[in-house]
Every structure is written in C-alpha cells, then in structure tokens.
Sequence to fold (404 residues):
Amino acid sequence: MFHINENYQKMPGSYLFADIGRKVREFSAANPDKEVIRLGIGDVTLPLAPAVVKEMSQAAEDMGTPEGFKGYPDYEGYEFLRRAIKENDFDPRGVEVGLDEIFVNDGAKSDSADLGEIFSKDCKVAVCDPVYPVYVNSHALAGRAGDYLPEKGEWSNLIYMPCTEANGFVPDLPGETPDLIYLCYPNNPTGGAITREALQRWVDYALKNKACILYDAAYEAYITDPSLPHTIYECEGAKECAIELRSFSKNAGFTGVRLGYSVVPKELKCGDVSLNTLWMKHQEFTFNGVSYPVQRAGAAVYSPEGKDQTAAQVAYYLKNAKAIKEGLEAAGYTVYGAENSPYAWLKVPAGMTSWQFFDKLLTEAAVVGTPGSGFGPHGEGFFRLTGFGTYKNTLAAIERIQKM
Ligand code: MLT
Fold:
C-alpha cells in the first residue's frame, strides 16, 4: 500500500496567491458589474519587449529548419545565455562568476524550492518574517519545518527572523544558529533594501557559523540607490557561503515565459564536497533544461535594445510604486518600500487585521492586494500593493482607496 507525503496534510492552506485568486474569483462572480483592479500577486502587465519577442520568434523559426533545430537543451543552460548573464550581471560589478557556476532555470520559484534538496534533512532553516512563502512551504513539505502551530502562525522547527519597522525590515542576526539562511533583497514583501555593510555582516556571520545563505535577488533591477549591492557576491567571502537566485520575471516581464537562474559557486563547500557539483547532479537527475526559444529570448534582454526596452519597463513599474506610496501617504497611510522595489508595504488602519483590510479593499474599492499576515506573523497589520499594474489602473486604485 502506498503512503502519501504526510507533510502535505500539515500545510495550513494553499499557496497564498492561489487562495487570494479564489477569493477574487468568488467576489467577481457575485459582483459582475464591479471592475476589479489586481495589485495582489507581483505579476507584470506590460507586453514583452520588442527585442525579446523578435528573438523568441526567430528562435522558434530556426527550430523549424534542419540547421536550426535543437533537441534537449544543456542541463545548465546554453552557453550563449550564461555568457550574457556573466558579462552583464556580474562582470561590470567586478564580481567573478564562472560560466559553470550559472544554472539557468524556468524561474526563481522552482529553484527557491528545489535547492533544499541538496541539503540534509537535519538542516535548521532561518527565514525572514514576513517572507516569500515558497521558502517556508518547500521546507515544510520536505519535513524540515516541523509542525504548523496555528495559534502562532509559525512552524515549530524554523527560525523566524522578524523584519519590522524598528529594524528597517532587515533582520537582526538570529539568537539560534541556523544552517540555511534565506535573505531576499530588495525584499519581497516589505519592499525594503539592504546596504552593503548590512549584507556583509550576514556573509561574515554565515562564514563564521558555516551556514549557507540563499540570496534571492529577483528584484535587483529595481534598485535605484547606487550605494546598494546588486548581488551578494559584491560582499567579501560570499562565494564561500552563498547561492544567489535571479529571475527574468520582474526585470523583463517573463512571468508567463518562465526563465531565471541560480549561481552556485564552486568555492561553496561542505567539507570537500562542492555544492556546485551537487546542484549540477540535481539538474541532470531531475531537470531537462529550459526551451531554446526562451533562452534566446533571455539573451535578447542583454542586447542593447533589450536593455533599453526592459529598463523602460522597470521605470514604468517604479513610477506606479511611487504613485502608490505618495497617493496613500496623502490619504494618511504609512507606506514603506516602493523606492528600490516594485512593492509598497503599508500599515493597515489601526484595529484591523491584514485580512480584514483585504476584505474591505475588495468589497468597498474592488482593489486586490496581499495581506501582510499571509507572508508570516510579523506581516500582520501590513498590506502589500504592487507596482506591476498598468499606470491607469494604479491611479484608479489609489483614487478608490483614497475615497474609502
Ligand atoms: C509575489 O507576488 O510575491 C510573486 O510574484 C509570487 C510568485 O513568484 O509566486
């Protein structure tokens, strides 16, 4: 008789954004006359950049010719894309990343979850609170998180690192020593940023404690402050203690195309075993790579036209985020983030929970956001709005919220 992975039964609900999607569908079915504005999930709205479309189409055409046809792609990604990544994302920052340290994937969400597979079941995991739920969910499903404690909204075996107004949404070093540490900057969901000095403190801490940092830099393109680090490898020693995750979803609008990559440095070792070797094995064992047209589309992001066109998209979403921040501050809200990030993180009115504010916003303004408590207990009392909507809808949403 087969048995299921009982950890699925321990999960308190579905994926946060799936839950929200269901609630919004119910609302729309009951209120067909209301035009809902979605500023919940961080999904982009602008069409793909012309340079990206042209290259993806050309690659698809090429696949239809005997000379251009491609079968299974390389497990780690085509060299042309890994080279473009190295030469554009790392070399200009004086960061040495080898082509064989870059692993192309179908979006950062998959690797955020799958990277856990190369670590021992006994590893103690530390996450920011609030946090992108995928890190927590993947360890819960793998049995590392212990049991869900509904009264606390926490898992018994995780180390939660509160990110609060008081610490500027950058956690203090944890009291209990973790083996794996998840950091995400610019931060999802708080929109906070981390300075180079603060990030170096985390790298030093990880080196001292032989911990591994999983650094999610999916929102790196939104950094506007030139003093902020774009990659953790700008910190000394980071290649010995950190894996970095990147995405094409937010900088180039690939949420529906699916492309990302991870950097797993060769210097990152457990004893004499390099995590780079383990991850290569993982990809060979379980993954057949990303399609050729999508990788060609990714390379086009780094072409001169692609860079200009995608930079304009990022600027558009940042303009939305700024409008949300200024518009809601004018209405009396306290709003964080939205400067080096597409996310605005606002305090819900006193006396309300995040989910109560979600319901109020949906029913009174037909605007969808994400309740902070969905990202963890310290997200309670906060609410996330994204800058990824259209400018028109963003302004309309602000106006509706101001009138509430
Ligand atoms: C977010 O809104 O936090 C992300 O876009 C959701 C995801 O990547 O699944």
Q: What stands out?
A: The CA atoms of residues 37 and 367 lie 5 Å apart. The first helix runs from residue 7 to 10. The mean pLDDT is 97. DSSP finds 13 helices and 17 strands in the chain.
